[in-house]
Amino acid sequence: MARRMLIAGNWKMNGLRQSLGFLEEIRPAAHSRRNVDVLLAPPATLIVSAAEIAGPVKIGGQDCHIHPSGAHTGDISAEMLRDAGASYVIVGHSERRADHGESSELVRAKAEAAQAAGLVPMICVGESESDRREGKAEAVVGEQLHQSLPGSTAYVIAYEPVWAIGTGLTASLDDIAAMHAFIRSKLPDGATTQILYGGSVKPANAADILSLNDVDGALVGGASLKAADFGAIIEAAP
Ligand code: 13P
Question: What is the pLDDT of residues 93-103, one digit of tens each?
Fold first, then answer.
């Protein structure tokens, strides 16, 4: 079965209720691309309202706790995200790995919690600039995969080189192609698992990146905050 394209927007810590007009604006692009799935991960405060007006757009969380409930002030469980209207959750984003010291073992537990709650975890991996400079990119990503993947293969992978996030720098097409092929070779269900690229994806580079064989979509940060840009990326998917 051919893998579907998935264009996902990660709003990170951006967005107020007034921002949700975005969903109306991207709806024509989401509707017109029958072979492309579109996902928006707004901040948790907006998930309920976003899900109510999402139409064809899937809604995701940006993180979840490993437990379904309990004494964990400030945390949000996968079950709560699902109840709020999410069907996906991003886990192991490099900003959480860096800002909150999240280990790959914790990311795996979060992915398992997401699956148990009926969500599809989007598991993020990616090397730092020094890893790449030192020729360790594949080794680092391979180790992250080894430690972060749950037993059940119901997940999406997002390859986001840390040095390309929010910097305007993107990996070269050759490097993206090589890393995606490497990741696919390491996955137990490689032929069917979606692997997205993330890191400064924008309308100007989306068509080239998305046309690569092993790239099944994009995880978009900054350019997902503007409906025109995000819509153009959806249109750029092959
Ligand atoms: P940018 O698209 O802003 O580089 O962010 C990528 C990202 O981290 C998406 O999760």
Answer: 999 999 999 99
In this prediction, residue 169 carries a pLDDT of: 87
Q: Please tell me the pTM assigned to this model.
A: 0.97
CA of 116 to the centre of ligand 1 (A): 27
Which ligand 1 atom minimizes the distance to the CA of 95? 8
126 CB near ligand 1 (under 6 Å): no
Express each pLDDT in 20-41 by its tens digit.
999 999 999 999 998 999 999 9
Q: Please work out whether the CB of residue 179 comes within 6 Å of at least one atom of ligand 1.
A: no
Structural domains of the chain, count:
1
Which residue in 65, 79, 93, 180 is the catalytic one? 93
Distance 70 CA to ligand 1 centre (A): 31
The CATH number of whichever domain residue 188 belongs to comes to 3.20.20.70
- Ligand 1 midpoint to CA 194 (Å): 18
Note the pLDDT tens digit of each residue in 129-152.
Answer: 999 999 999 999 999 999 999 999
Q: How confident is the model at residue 2 (pLDDT cuts 50, 70, 90)?
A: confident
- Domain that includes residue 170, residue range: 5-236
Pocket test for ligand 1, best of 128, 163, 170, 201 (most atoms within 8 A of CB): 201
| Three state DSSP letters for the chain | CCCCEEEEEECCCCCCHHHHHHHHHHHHHHHHCCCEEEEEECCHHHHHHHHHHCCCCEEEECCCECCCCCCCCCCCEHHHHHHHCCCEEEECCHHHHHHCCCCHHHHHHHHHHHHHCCCEEEEEECCCHHHHHCCCHHHHHHHHHHHHCCCCCCCEEEECCHHHCCCCCCCCHHHHHHHHHHHHHHCCCCCCCCEEEECCCCHHHHHHHHCCCCCCEEEECHHHCCHHHHHHHHHHCC
